[in-house]
């Protein structure tokens, strides 16, 4: 059983979703800060309005240790006395055994009414009472510690702690404003980061492209519209870079075209001009000599015409509006006709040959004139550059819905280092341009263009001094 791995396409998020997410985060953060602030304000407000029990409790807790030890000299009575209060210790008989501070009526014992006032002070404040009380009972010694503070002093003390309502409102307003400001800044920063950073990157990329740096690419880790814009920008930059390279290559080809054609035409035109001038300026030369020079002029004219014709065909194939005239054709019969047109030249060159063409018909859509030119270039190159006795083999067969034509020889071959570039324009095997067999250098390029326009392909296998093998692949109908 086979298992296939596949990836689901990554879901694209929108900028609006990003803004909404930032808004939610900002809202949650604002709510959190506001909650914390409200808690602080409540605690702060509560601390401003503590009841008297908390204050008296502090005084009581400070004196319990000394009271339990019966060490009355270490009782902390000074702050209580300064507040106008007093400290008393009462036994189980109601007698005051210790007193410090201003006690009411300088009493020395407690009546039931006095006990009632003191004990009531443990739970609530009687509006008619002058003091607030706190007590602690020592069960071991049957003694009661009584601490009393005047309500008038307590009220003044609390008023000093309290905030006026107007101040409290102003403070709350200021805090709320700062909370809103902080939330706004956080939201602005998070949102601007999502916008400003990609926009800056895109602007930098546009500036570099405008300056001619077509290798510029923008990489944004984003799945929203900015990420899509970044991908589109990179695709645009890549296409511009490719177009620029094609333009540069075309310009280089154009310059090389002019240079090579000028050089290749120079020799035959110079020969034509030289020999024709010689004939014109020497009317007394013999007819035999004149015929010799006319043959040279004719050969150079044919050579110049061939170069010009190659250039014309190459330019025509490169034009955008060029189209082939396809016709359903028996490729075997067509191949036999092409070979027949070269048989006399093959025999004249004293080549040995082997032709192996199927008898059965195989049909291919071809432009007969142009395909004949493409195959003819390969045969002509074999005849032009190889020596007598070379074996030329041409065969055809079908394989995998394609018809394959092989043109091979055991001649001088082609260096392997030229194999990859041999189909490029103006690539020549023979280094010497003055060789009488030198071609235009665009014949194989023309062959490749024609075959590719037939939706086919051409390849080369070669070895120097061991021959060449060209293979043409054409789709069968």
What does this structure look like?
With 477 residues, the protein is an alpha+beta fold. The protein folds into 4 domains: 75 residues; 110 residues, Beta-Lactamase; 77 residues, Helix Hairpins (Orthogonal Bundle); 153 residues, 2-Layer Sandwich (Heat Shock Protein 90), CATH 3.30.565. It has a 5-stranded mixed beta sheet with strand order 6-8-9-11-10, covered by helices on one side. Helix 8 packs parallel to helix 12.
Task: Assign the CATH class of the largest domain.
Answer: Alpha Beta
Major sheet: size, sense and barrel closure? 5 strands, mixed
The class by helix and strand makeup works out as alpha+beta
Q: Mean pLDDT score, rounded?
A: 80
Would you identify the CATH H-level superfamily of the largest domain? Answer: Histidine kinase-like ATPase, C-terminal domain
Catalytic activity: ATP + protein L-histidine = ADP + protein N-phospho-L-histidine
Organism: Clostridium frigidicarnis
Main location: membrane
Keywords: ATP-binding, Cell membrane, Kinase, Membrane, Nucleotide-binding, Phosphoprotein, Transferase, Transmembrane, Transmembrane helix, Two-component regulatory system
């Amino acid at each position: 059983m086979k298992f296939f791995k596949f990836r689901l396409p990554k879901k694209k998020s929108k900028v609006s979703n990003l803004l909404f997410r930032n808004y939610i985060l900002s809202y949650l953060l604002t709510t959190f800060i506001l909650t914390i602030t409200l808690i602080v304000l409540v605690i702060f407000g509560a601390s401003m309005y503590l009841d008297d029990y908390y204050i008296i409790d502090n005084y009581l807790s400070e004196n319990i240790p000394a009271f339990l030890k019966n060490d009355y000299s270490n009782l902390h009575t000074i702050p209580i006395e300064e507040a106008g209060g007093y400290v008393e210790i009462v036994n189980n008989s109601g007698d005051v055994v210790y007193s410090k501070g201003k006690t009411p009526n300088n009493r020395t014992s407690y009546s039931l009414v006095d006990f009632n006032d003191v004990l009531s002070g443990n739970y609530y404040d009687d509006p008619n009472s002058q003091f607030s009380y706190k007590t602690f009972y020592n069960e071991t010694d049957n003694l009661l510690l009584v601490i009393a503070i005047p309500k008038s002093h307590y009220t003044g003390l609390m008023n000093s702690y309290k905030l006026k309502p107007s101040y409290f409102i102003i403070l709350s307003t200021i805090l709320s404003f700062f909370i809103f400001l902080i939330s706004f800044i956080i939201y602005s920063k998070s949102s601007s980061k999502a916008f400003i950073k990609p926009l800056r990157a895109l602007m930098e990329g546009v500036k570099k492209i405008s300056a001619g740096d077509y290798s510029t690419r923008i990489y944004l880790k984003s799945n929203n519209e900015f990420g899509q814009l970044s991908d589109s920008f990179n695709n645009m930059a890549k296409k511009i870079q490719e177009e620029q390279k094609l333009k540069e290559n075309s310009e280089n080809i154009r310059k090389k075209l002019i240079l090579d054609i000028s050089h290749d035409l120079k020799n035959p035109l110079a020969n034509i001009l030289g020999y024709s001038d010689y004939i014109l300026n020497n009317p007394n030369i013999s007819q035999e000599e004149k015929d010799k020079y006319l043959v040279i002029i004719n050969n150079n004219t044919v050579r110049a015409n061939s170069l010009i014709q190659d250039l014309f065909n190459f330019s025509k194939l490169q034009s955008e509006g060029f189209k082939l005239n396809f016709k359903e054709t028996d490729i075997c019969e067509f191949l036999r006709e092409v070979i027949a047109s070269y048989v006399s030249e093959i025999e004249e060159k004293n080549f040995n040959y082997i032709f192996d063409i199927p008898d059965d018909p195989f049909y291919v859509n071809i432009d007969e004139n142009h395909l004949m030119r493409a195959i003819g270039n390969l045969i002509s190159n074999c005849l032009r550059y190889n020596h007598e006795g070379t074996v030329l083999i041409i065969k055809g067969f079908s394989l995998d819905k394609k018809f394959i034509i092989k043109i091979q020889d055991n001649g001088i071959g082609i260096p392997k280092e030229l194999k990859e570039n041999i189909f490029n324009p103006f690539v020549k095997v023979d280094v010497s341009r003055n060789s009488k067999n030198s071609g235009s250098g665009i014949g194989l390029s023309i062959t490749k263009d024609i075959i590719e326009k037939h939706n086919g392909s051409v390849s080369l296998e070669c070895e120097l001094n061991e021959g060449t093998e060209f293979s043409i692949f054409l789709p069968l109908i």
